[in-house]
Amino acid sequence: MEAQIKTLIANVLFFKGLSDAEIDDLYRITSERTYQRNQIVFSDGEEGAGFFLVIEGRISVYKMSPEGKEQILHILGPGEPLGQVAVFAGASFPANAQAIAVSRLLFFPRRAFVNLIRARPTLALNMLAILSNRLREFTVQIENISLKEVPARLASYLLYLSEEQHNTARLQLTISKAQLASIIGTIPETLSRILNRMSAKKLIQVNGREIKLVDRENLVALAEHGRLVDL
Fold first, then answer.
1. Can you tell me whether residue 70 is helix, strand or coil?
2. In this predicted model, what pLDDT tens digit does every residue of 143-192 receive, in sequence order?
3. Which of 15, 40, 99, 109 has a beta carbon 3.0–4.6 Å from 35's, enabling a disulfide?
4. Which pairs from 17-21 meet CB under 8 Å and 24+ separation?
5. Domain end: 144, 174, 196, which one?
6. Across residues 192-221, what is the average pLDDT?
7. In terms of domains, do 130 and 157 share one?
């Protein structure tokens, strides 16, 4: 098990290029934590005492509006870091995190990790790469929610999932449709209507949690321009 966790650490973009000895140093400062389904990992505004790496399970990162509406920002799975912004900023967590399945996380305490960064600047450069990528994701998400209609948002997200799953045409949803609705800023009933409409137009095929991208060209047109190309 120790060897598997060290391999997981070594494969995280943060830690690419580190030597076996450096991976060992990282592993030594960690502790493992288990969270049950629906258990809170951390809350918005809570002191950022460290960050996490998902070993098993899935974690929802979300914000709550004053009216109580939930907006999911990320769904994170094995091998993905969580809460690293607080480590760099020395600040509180900027969102909530909750296990949506039984999850095992590796915890990196902030003080010990910062000491390692001082000794190995490569870690800081790798973390900046991850944070830059997350900023890009947020920018796209904000653009989608504020400027695009729901069908275009959904098309954008399906294409993003395809890229994330190695450009496959058959996507596996690892989250519920209610969570998908939250990610694209709508409600489950509207999501179901849009999925049915896109299926009727032969853009996609839906079979449970599998979604097949049938007409990628028109999905791209819908995502980018809010309309289909002439058929």
1. strand
2. 555 557 889 989 988 988 888 787 788 998 888 888 889 888 888 999 99
3. 99
4. 17/122, 17/126, 18/120, 18/122, 18/123
5. 144
6. 93
7. no
Last residue of a domain, one of 144, 170, 190: 144
Most confident region among 109-123, 164-178, 193-207 by mean pLDDT: 193-207
- Whole-angstrom distance, CA of residue 205 vs CA of residue 150: 18
Residue 110 lies in a domain: yes
pLDDT of residue 139: 61
d(C-alpha 212, C-alpha 25), whole Å: 43
- Written as six digits, the tokens of 25 are 């140093």
Residue whose pair of structure tokens reads 């994170």 in the numeric block: 76
Tokens 């914000």 -> residue: 63
Domain that holds residue 165: 148-225
Which runs of consecutive H residues, i.e. helices, occur in 90-211?
Answer: 110-119, 121-147, 150-164, 177-183, 188-200
Pairwise CA distance, residues 169 & 118, whole Å? 44
Same-domain pairing of 90 and 156: no
Same domain for 168 and 140, yes or no, is no
Strand order in the sheet with 204-207: 170-172, 210-213, 204-207
C-alpha 4/C-alpha 161 separation (Å) is 26
Report pLDDT digits (tens) over 60-88. 999 988 878 888 888 999 988 898 877 76
Ramachandran class of 50: left when φ > 0, alpha when ψ lies in -120 to 50, beta otherwise: left
| Region of residue 79 (phi > 0: left; psi between -120 and 50: alpha; otherwise: beta) | left
